[in-house]
């Protein structure tokens, strides 16, 4: 059997039509899952439902998958070693990368990164266990989502599961901030051993998915920010020293972004250069688009996606002895372009997430999640107000599902609107009919 198409739950084999490829089955299982549908109601930057224009987790995931599939197709033609399939982790199948990109944000709770932060803080303070979005992905794919005949969630192929696994570590290892919960890590580690994956290294498909996620953040979120008026396309805004200082501060304080060698450059000077070039490009396109802002926004986004995606390549990584998916220029890692992308990501973060109105929404979100947690955290009371099907499922899996994790799973699966609805039922004076379907 093809080791890339191995499934953890052998009992589920033989229950499907032979007319479809294994990855086609993975794709169908994923997009037909409730967890995937709920992405349409989860925040990307602005709250889901903020307007018809702005992206949600669902549209973001679709855009990442499109970029990733196209890049995988191009790289497959560009690098001969990929066609030789010398190692299961040194393969770039466009279908696998596409599915992984669609699944990469399933673990995000309602209200974006603020929801993740609050749930993690509550679980750590009260029970010493973490909540982390990437780890929750695997909990959903391998346990919470149910497929008939499977005891392993959606029972996806090994290739797809490892393509989602951009942090190939157990989250309970000392010092790990991202990874996989212990309950799912044992099986992921089992697959990695079967593949002969180097310790700490991700498959090429996982690396490509991760890089394309960053490409989407640094282009699409900025487009939303311009549309919302949070990023003003004029010199007064782009040359404001306060903006530049905030960007520099975010770069310096980001301890997870040291691999691009910020210590080797004058950070304020590079920030000013990137912002100046970005504005100059906007001004030129604005004139070419007959001074129409919407056309200019779309063209700017398309051009930067093209710039980034066109520079994705594969190099040898001497630090790990593995291959690395990154921006490449003349056979070498293009550090300057990586830094440019990081500056644009920070621009979106500083102008959108740090905006005081967005902070108000996040404060409101924190209050709601905390009070939902307080309502459900005591089993004797929580089981009275959590839907019966969830309680029945909990009783079936008590041996591997403690109550705090169960409550976190329930809250994290909510869309923004559903979290507000449940909060209103518990704490508002009026919340509509009690006969509305959950």
From TrEMBL:
The lineage of its organism: Bacteria, Bacillati, Bacillota, Bacilli, Bacillales. CDD domains: HDc. Keywords: Hydrolase. The keyword Hydrolase applies. Gene3D superfamilies: Hypothetical protein af1432 (1.10.3210.10). One of its GO terms (biological process) is dGTP catabolic process. The keyword Hydrolase applies. Residues 57-218 form the HD domain. This is DNTP triphosphohydrolase. One of its GO terms (molecular function) is dGTPase activity. It holds the Pfam family HD. SMART domains: HDc. The gene is dgt.
């Amino acid at each position: 059997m093809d080791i890339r198409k191995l499934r953890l739950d052998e009992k589920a084999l033989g229950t499907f039509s032979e007319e479809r490829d294994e990855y086609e089955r993975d794709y169908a299982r994923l997009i037909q899952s409730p967890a995937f549908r709920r992405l349409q109601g989860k925040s990307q930057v602005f709250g889901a439902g903020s307007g018809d224009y702005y992206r949600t987790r669902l549209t973001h995931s679709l855009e990442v998958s499109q970029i990733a599939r196209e890049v995988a197709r191009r790289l497959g033609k560009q690098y001969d070693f990929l066609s030789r399939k010398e190692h299961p982790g040194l393969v770039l199948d466009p279908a696998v990368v596409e599915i992984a990109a669609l699944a990469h944000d399933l673990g995000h709770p309602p209200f974006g990164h603020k929801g993740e932060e609050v749930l993690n803080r509550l679980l750590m303070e009260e029970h010493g266990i973490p909540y982390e979005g990437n780890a929750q992905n695997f909990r959903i794919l391998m346990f919470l989502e149910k497929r008939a005949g499977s005891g392993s969630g959606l029972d996806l192929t090994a290739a797809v599961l490892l393509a989602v696994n951009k942090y190939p570590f157990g989250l309970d290892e000392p010092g790990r901030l991202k990874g996989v919960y212990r309950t799912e890590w044992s099986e992921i580690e089992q697959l990695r051993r079967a593949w002969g994956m180097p310790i700490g290294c991700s498959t090429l498909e996982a690396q490509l998915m991760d890089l394309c996620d960053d490409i989407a953040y640094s282009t699409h979120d900025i487009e939303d920010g311009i549309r919302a008026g949070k990023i003003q396309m004029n010199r007064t805004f782009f040359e404001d020293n306060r903006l530049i200082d905030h960007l520099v501060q975010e770069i310096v304080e980001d301890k997870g972004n040291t691999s691009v060698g910020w210590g080797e450059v004058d950070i304020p000077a590079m920030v000013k250069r990137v912002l100046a070039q970005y504005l100059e490009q906007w001004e030129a396109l604005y004139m070419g688009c007959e001074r129409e802002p919407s056309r200019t926004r779309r063209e700017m986004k398309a051009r930067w996606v093209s710039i980034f995606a066109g520079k994705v390549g594969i190099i040898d990584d001497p630090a790990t002895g593995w291959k690395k998916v990154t921006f490449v220029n003349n056979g070498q890692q293009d550090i300057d372009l990586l830094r440019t992308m990081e500056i644009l990501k920070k621009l979106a973060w500083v102008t959108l997430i740090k905006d005081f109105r967005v902070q108000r929404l996040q404060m409101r979100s924190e209050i709601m999640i905390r009070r939902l947690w307080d309502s459900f955290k005591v089993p004797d009371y929580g089981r009275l107000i959590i839907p019966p099907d969830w309680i029945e499922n909990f009783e079936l899996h008590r041996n591997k599902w403690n109550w705090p994790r169960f409550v976190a799973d329930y809250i994290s699966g909510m869309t923004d609107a559903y979290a507000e609805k449940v909060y209103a039922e518990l704490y508002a004076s009026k919340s509509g009919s009690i006969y509305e379907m959950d």
